[in-house]
Amino acid sequence: MVTVEVNCQSIEDSNLLLRALWAECRETFSKCAWQYIPHRDGERGIVHFGFANIDMDTLLEVSVSYQRKGVIRSVMFEGVNGVINEELASELTQVVRRAFERPLISHTIHAKINSTLLDIAPYSSEHFVLMPLGKKENLFSLQVEGFDRVDAEAESLKFLGAILDFLAVCTNSAFVVRSLVVDNGELIPNVEPAFFSDDFDWIDESPADEKGRFLLWANQKEFIEKILSKEILMAHPFLRASYHFHAAQTLLKSATARERVLNDIAIVLFMSALEVGTELYPFEPSHCDACGQPIYAIRQRVLDLARKFTNAQIVQFIDAFYSQRSKFLHAGFLSTDANYVGTSIPQLDPSSSTGCRMQVSIPPIVLGERVGFILRKVYMERIA
Questions:
Q1: How many domains does the chain have?
Q2: Do residue 181 and residue 224 come from a single domain?
Q3: Residues 6 or more apart from 293 whose CB is under 8 A from it?
Q4: Are 163 and 188 in contact (CB under 8 A)?
Q5: Domain end residue (candidates: 181, 205, 234)
Q6: Cα dist. 59→14, 46, 92, 155 in Å?
Q7: Which residues have a Cβ under 8 Å from the Cβ of 310 and sit 6 or more positions away?
């Protein structure tokens, strides 16, 4: 086994070192393919990553040791096909040492993005350029720092995922990355001037310019810039809420009338988006008189959030879906039999909100619109 002491100081340092190390391996050995089987040996303070293939004949088991969780003390390589010879042992040690010195390089990533509703109007900033291509397609260019092209591409997808989740809340749309191109060029700002919407109360009629392109609010553009500058972290509650919302919208676009479960899962995700959204408001849980455990009353907090920005009818509407969500998650009740064959066969179901059995799954589109509206209101009040 080859053990190289590194003594990182934080989880951020540790992950930067690992990214640099894999890039250094790719450059040194022209290959670093993984059989990624991560597991942790807590008793020994070791995290095993799995097996790295650095050439046709060399498979290495790679692990790190730690004293504090997430903070690397040493990097370890063990030969799977035999003992690591002295030459390779020296090379691996030097690879780790060079990883400490490897610089981050700015890369420009160009991502073609498709929307389920409209393409977005052009916007530019220091860290990104958003250009409409027509037919619900945009080119999103951004600059990220990476230790090589592979590392930069992987980093860009983390940012793009968070940004597209946020844009889903901004637009009630769903997005997918169709292609990525990496280069070392500069961002070229849009020539076309940027226009912003001042409609802060829309629900289902998304604000668009005269060319039918979605308009953002000025502070939404600024929020994207903060994501890319790392002022807003990936674990921010609003981004986590946006992830649930975007996942729900994506499911709605792929569900069919005969689907038995996708719409139910979308309802779960919409409710989860509101649950995470409540984290942006201070809350002191009460405690159970019998056992002293905290009572978080998450359903009530979701309804209070809806009540803050909507009316009693919409609160009741959301409460009905919350109840449906709980029946699906905790009792396995589906919203439909998915047995429509061209003719309705009305039957009773006392447990449903309508009192009737449903033969088709009705997409919760209106629910998505109301949840999107509430999340945008939360954004304006707590973030913008």
A1: 3
A2: yes
A3: 287
A4: no
A5: 234
A6: 23, 19, 13, 26
A7: 318, 370, 373, 374
Question: What local confidence, expressed as pLDDT, does residue 253 receive?
Answer: 82
Last residue of a domain, one of 84, 101, 118: 101
pLDDT, tens digit, for every residue of 226-276? Answer: 999 999 999 999 999 999 999 999 998 876 655 668 889 999 999 999 999
**Which sign, positive or negative, has the C-alpha torsion 70, 74, 77, 78?**
negative
Task: Based on the fold, state whether residues 54 and 9 are members of the same structural domain.
Answer: yes
Cβ neighbours around 272 below 10 Å, total? 20
Distance separating alpha carbons of residues 381 and 368, to the nearest angstrom = 20
For the beta carbon of residue 352, count every other beta carbon within 10 angstroms. Answer: 15
SS3 254: helix
130-139, 289-298, 357-366, 371-380: which range is least confident on average?
Answer: 289-298
Own/partner long-range contacts of 53-59 (Cβ < 8 Å, ≥24 apart)? 54/25, 54/29, 55/29, 55/30, 55/31, 57/81, 58/88
Name the pTM for this structure.
0.91
Find the domain containing 92 and state its range: 2-101
Q: Looking at the structure, do residues 97 and 110 belong to the same domain, yes or no?
A: no
